């Protein structure tokens, strides 16, 4: 088969040793079979560009795509939050093909076997245990109630409410993208993100129970909006954070 030399426009200076002054280069081309492999080869002369060789045998080898370990874990273990998964990785409780990996950004093949050797938590995040303690100590009956979880975040409070029998939960948060997939995909949950509770005008229905776990804002500022969506005999459970309730002159004590 005849070889063809094609003169192409300037891209790089051909050589830097002064032996060749032409600012163009030549491409050796020919017809190749549909299946081929590509490998890089080091040029023998001192040139400012790389060259490559094409082999006619074998199939084209596409590099296996790898992804971050925490991303693969989130995809395969959707019931857990990103924070929890990253915590397990740092603790050395995640294994890839039988080997412990403790860096969340480690590139991992999509075909790798990923295992988590950790105690499975009851809720999607630790916040659920805080609300559980309040429900038990205050004797609050959640069964069949429609609730509003203000300060949804990952969804720990919402998870706790559902496991204690709540029929439906509206989760409101000023942020977005933090809710665990387990909560986001639950048909009993309506996630309302990018919404400041202070300016919440209404909900599709009045609620029987409200939980508040807010930061960087006083509870007093959101109460008008909260009362507006509560039934007359509704229950309010709030987590009080003194640093956000005290006056500016008093905050140095916290």
Automatic annotation (TrEMBL):
Domain RNA-binding S4: 67-132
InterPro entries: Hemolysin_A/TlyA, RNA_MeTrfase_FtsJ_dom, S4_RNA-bd, S4_RNA-bd_sf, SAM-dependent_MTases_sf, TlyA
Keyword terms: RNA-binding
GO molecular function: methyltransferase activity; RNA binding
Keyword Disulfide bond applies: no
Database matches in CDD domains: S4
One annotated GO biological process: methylation
Protein's name according to its UniProt entry: RNA-binding S4 domain-containing protein
Species of origin: Manihot esculenta
Organism lineage string: Eukaryota, Viridiplantae, Streptophyta, Embryophyta, Tracheophyta
